[in-house]
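A quick word before the example. In earlier lectures we treated sequence and structure as two separate objects. From today on, think of them as two lines of the same record. Here is Tyrosine-protein kinase written that way.
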Amino acid sequence: MPVRRWSKRSKRRSSAQSLVTPQDDGVHVYLFWSPNKERYLSHTAAERVTAEELCISAAEAVGITPLFHVLFALYDPMSCCWYSPNHVFHPNEGSCLILHFRMRFYFRNWHAFNDKEPDVARFTVKSETHADDDGQPVLEIKSVEYLFAQAKYDFVNELFPMEKLNSEEELSLFKNESLGMAMLHLMHLALQTGSTLQRVAKKTSFINCIPKSYAKHISEDKVLTKMRLRWMFERSMRTYQNNMEAKKPDVKEIICKYIYALECLAPRFGSETFAVRHLRLGGDDEHTSPDASRDGGAETVHELMVSANTGLQWREMMASEVCHIVGGNVDTSCFFLTIPLLLVNQWTPFCDFPGIIHIAISEANVCISTQDNKCMVEMSSSQEARSFISLLDGYYRLTVDAHHYLCHEVAPPRVLLSQANGLHGPIHDDFVLHKLKKEEAEEEACLVRWSVLNYHRLVLAVPNKNQNGSMASHKLFCIQHKDSVFTLDGWQEKFSSVKELTNTLKDYILKSGTDSYTIKKCCRPRQGELSNLLVKRRGIDGSASTRTLSPNKLELCFQIKYKDLILVRSHLGFGTRTHIYSAHLQVGQVVAEQEDDLNGDKYKKIQVVLKVLEQSHEDITSAFFEMASLMSQVSHNHLVFVHGLSVNGSENIMVEEFVEFGPLDVFLCREKAKLTPRWKFIVAKQLANALNYLATKGVTHGNVCGRNVLVARRGLEQGTSPLVKLSDPGIAVNILCQEERLERIPWIAPECVYSKAPVGIGADQWSFGVTLLEICNDGHLPMSDATLPEKERFYQQKGKLLEPSSRDLAVFINKCLSYEPLERPHFCSLLRDLIDIMIKSAAHSTVFLKRHLKKKNILGKGNFGMVTLYMYDPANDGTGELVAVKSLKQENGPLPKYWLKEIETLKFFDHTNIVKYKGCCTEMGESSALIMEFLPFGSLEKYLQKQEKSTSQCLLFAQQICQGMEYLHSKRYIHRDLAARNILVKNDSLVKIADFGLSKYIPENDTYYRVSEDGDSPVFWYALECLKLNKFSFRSDVWSFGVTLYEILTRCDPSQKMNVNVLISLLERWQRLPCPADCPSEVTNIMTSILEL
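And the structure line, produced from the sequence above:
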């Protein structure tokens, strides 16, 4: 982001002047420390700006380099929430926003002072082969200085997570530690200024270096107590001054001791906790998005904690004794008074960051998916939900994969840019050289990474080979990045992307002095590859050598005696060089009481499948054993379980789990009339899950196809979902003959057809794309029926398979079916994108057929049409869903614009407090019918007239309307018809905003909309600028909310409504609506401020 957007408020004048909080419109970022003593960076330009751009500018002002700036984020002290990197600020909306630039991602014991906690360090090239490598420091000196300033601020203002002090001994220890930290604070000032401790203490009192509550406590002590404390501190200061002169500690050592002391004082320092309204663990694949249907208003009963060393944990809280502390803003007396705190259970681990597969969000609802579990969370707001998942997402990139994101809604723009262009992060030169040497087999390869020093520069690295052809070093070329344009130094050509630039360079020769370089291929980041971008947590992360699972030909799960334990039932068919049988496996002896149930059989038996290697292929026995051994060492819900091997004479047999409904391709053909898109998405997701698991173990399957995916549960019955399992791959691809490999086209990856080398993970990515096409086409692919020459020619010509009708799915599959293996996405990315498409597809499934709509009764009529209750019952069995159908009166002519506007607007809204759009039915006469969710209690206006509701209940409704309107405005829509009659009631604790016929979209650079069309207007709810000038803005909606709030608090009493003359008379006399009875004064003040001109 160009620095010219920023104005800097310096600290060169008096201290009082420099700390004055900015009042100008815009976004103002507070810096705890900077070399130039700047305190605020202000973005007041009209153009929008992202949180990532603000962080980069702040990092540049502080001197933090690109490798370390990802540890920082923007924090809003008012809402106690963090902003995700992709959050967009709109400074032209007439608001002044003060944010703090803070280190958010914190690794305890980065200083290695605590031998009771695991050390942390960044990976080095040696880390890949030497697990005991010391690594590189987690923080640079500028980051350390900034962290110190932030920690001092938090310590003095008591913003760190302090545990309750239960005894006088603990209180005394806290006081002593606080004084010790004050001493370190003063020692740091002395070293920086070259002064003695005594001189520094005259300018900065130790009272200003301890928590405010402790300082207040001292101020209330007796005079003699104060004098004794000061005398003791001064005596300690003389001792420390002597030690400083003798040992001469450096600034970093003092900082490390201060941070270490703070970590000891606050065991949860560096962690974040979130109070959640609802927590549900477990769940099956049927649920792929957060559960947003839960009613609001429930009390907080769970708490989540996220920390770098322990991942995600949770615990229950007793709601009756919750003492809620938000963002560390605690009562300043809490250290010294005995107050009732939380009665809690111990923290329970949910998962560490490597275990997270995907995160989905829908407003305040979050779904965290892992390999074997799921966590559904309802936060208190959408802002807090984004704050939460951006924390998990950031730690994932710091500990697992520096180039991957878990949730698109919070993905940093630079990560998206890097992924689209195959860019590496700011990795060090030794990793660049190591990466290029690994790719040395690839002719004329290059690598593009972000600069380690400059935020607006990239570096193109190409191998520099010596005379014998081996690579000893690499040559660097700089690429400048400014205003979304990329230029190579020394070349005037401008490019819109790095990918376009490198593709163009393939047709040119790069010159540097007398040396010439050519580029044919770019090395992209690989899934989870080690670099200095990742932090190694000793004792938590596995070593690099144990991250993958290597085949072990000698280690078998167990041996089975064929004759004694296996009873063959029937021959099922043929595999690749194998016979397949159905059989029973004896697994144990039954007790006497169970014999009757088993028809007198004394042995327990389970049904299994036998794969018997043909005796004519004994030359591949070792490969058969290797495959069986490898598959017996992996275990996953969506992998067929391998019981083990049986060697009976010349027969080599693999014994594996029996899966009831057989191969997926056969099942798809047989049941295609019953299969829904959602069913197919679930199956594809389960397959991707299994392949992602294998990829994390370093295992390539090599034979992914529909016939190797087995159906364990049909999922066709109501309330059930399918379950599939990937079977073993059979004989390895590189052992097959050329004809057998050609036969596997199009499932086999193109690079495997002519190569005898072991297949890489890219082969599974290709095969998954083809299998997904197979699922879309109900088990059939046109290419599968082609002759071998036709198949071979198809690959030679780089042919394309038929795409599915869904555009999103077609783009997804085409990424898998790239003829360049390194361009295929990693399975973690495939799984994430597939789930996103699945959620999007479910949200846009809006086709309703008239023949399935069964009319119940009329819910209401208006000037333009009516709302009718229907049951949508495609199964015609009375189990359908109740929906509200809004239709126009039958008239000739085209549909009114406002009607089409409401349909188009509702499609894109997804919020708990906005009525759900379900779809349209275009068969209802000559006009469209709008299908919406049915809310049984009708409008809030009629509901309040009939029901006796307390003020607190009314305020709950008002809060939910605020939340819905906040979401609406975040999408830059104004409602223009907000009133109690347009609020619908689902139950006693949930209301939703409806009727978007008058809503308007406000473009990015505008602040209001001027209405020119004629039509009925709800003048009683309109602000003055709307009545006089036809100008509508976000603020005019706020006015309408004030009137709606008055309606709610008067329970929509008709006697308190006004006619037009009375309303105009009030407004002309600068009067406003009278205060409703029993209205709290705080609410009255809010309503008064809302209804200001």
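Notice the following. The chain has a mean pLDDT of 81. We will return to this example when we discuss secondary structure assignment.
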